[in-house]
Amino acid sequence: MIRLVRAEWTKLLTTRVWLGLLLGACAMAGGFAALFTGFAGQTGNNGQSLPGVGTTAYEQAAFGVSARATVLLLILGIIGMTQEYRHRTATPTFLVSPHRGRVVVAKLIAYALAAVPIGLLVVATDVLVVEIYAGARGAAPSLSGDNLGVLAGAWAALVIYAVIGVGVGALLRNQVGAIVGALVYLFVVEGIVFRAIPAIAPVLKWLPGGALDAMTATLNDTDLLEPWQGGLLLLGYGVVAAVAGTLFAVRRDST
Amino acid sequence: MGSATTRDPVRIEVRGLSKAFGSVQAVSDLGFTVEPASVTGFLGPNGAGKTTTLRMVLGLERPDAGTATFNGAPYASLPEPVKTVGAVLETAFHPARSGRNHLRVYCRAAGLPLSRADEVLTEVGLAEAGGRRAGGYSLGMRQRLALATALLGDPPVLVLDEPANGLDPEGIQWLRGFLRALAHEQGRTVLVSSHLLSEVEQTVDRVVIVGAGRLVREGSIEQLRSGAVGAGMVLVRSPDSVRLAEALRTAGGTVTQEDDGALTVAGTTPAEVGRRAFAAGVELHELRPQTSGLEEIYFELTAGREQFAAHSLGSDTDTEAAR
Fold first, then answer.
1. Which domain range does residue B254 map to?
2. Chain A residue closest in CA terms to B131
3. Chain B residues closer than 8 Å to A87 by CB
4. What mean pLDDT do residues B271-278 have?
5. How many domains does chain A have?
6. If you measure CA to CA, which chain B residue comes closest to A250?
7. Interface pTM (ipTM) of the complex?
């Protein structure tokens, strides 16, 4: 198994996909952090005002924006799995390891571990931007207590979303379909459609987006799961997708 | 590359292999043996079930019935498959990854030292191109890289699906020598599929010919040749072909006049024809045994079988429509 995990890291590091997604994720976290800080304390045209620099609400929201980059780690995981089918390297991969389930497990482990340093860099970018910008506006947040909890939650969410990506990729096999499908689900289905239907509101917290919200503080003050529950739930989604993918898609004859 | 003395011979045995895709019977009760220290050509028209068979042999596809084993063990049960069998089925690579890195991925996965990547690149003549992105490789270079992947584990068995596709004449020449050396000098078991007999005729020792998913002929290339329709036929040319034909007929030969003026004589030898002509005082311009080419035998064996895929797919569609 360790050989297969190392082979996955070699695959990951010998193309530039990881670098692009890492830079994109850092830019996303840093950008959102800057926006949040820039507009902190201002009142929008809908009458709602954003919490000001120095408030707990601001600090937690600004540190929680790292979790928005989870979508890019999701894509990293999806590409990691589906590239085998897209570039038809599944055949040599399965020749080396005729037990296909082991290949999927190796990818889950490899991408979870690879997401640890990537997630750390994303969170670090967020912290850097917030500390400098908010510091310039008068109150650099302290890196302690609940703030650290939010950062840890965002970091864990980034790692878990890479795992979910591998699972989704195993299930769908088609790279473009899996990425588009995941984005549409997260941003359109769960982000807009479900939120607009009151009947669904109670189950939202059990869905991937709601579980992600649970892991980090957000401005939405709806009832959410505990962060650790959200994390476990997300991990569960990833594992279920990977198991289902292994049973129904990956083991299916590939041509 | 290892030496021949230390390599254990491995025999591939295929028994009763069958596979259907929907209502299309791709492979039917197929059985054959691939011997060590020789190159076996796995021949048949497109759609004869060659690739499906190879995929089942390599554990990539589950057969409906039958077995394929390497010294008794199916592929999936081999403890170190890459160190027993090297295979080329598709020449597909991640376009952004260099040839060397592609090989290193599989070194890692198989627990081989990364230095094997450079060794096999040199073996297939890609040492210079190893650092370049595989996406920029020519078709011939891709074939060589695929072959290099198969050689990583220094396996006693090589299974290659259409390895000559996309090779230029020089590349084909190189591949011939390479495969023969792998089998004859190093004692490996080499199975090469092709839809063109002429492509592998000079390379293979044995042939397994399939048509419509069934075994048509299995044996050595000499056995195939001796079964040729043209065996015992002699072609002779003379400015006085009428008198020559008469002389040969008198001697009991069956003579056929060809369109270009040559005569073909059945059931005789060139020496016999020469003797008759000399006795009759007829001038000869050409005299040679007319064994029809292996290609013709191959066509005869597989004639009418290449429509299999298209025909069956058509009838499948009809069935779908009827439902």
1. 234-289
2. A14
3. 92-95
4. 88
5. 1
6. B60
7. 0.85
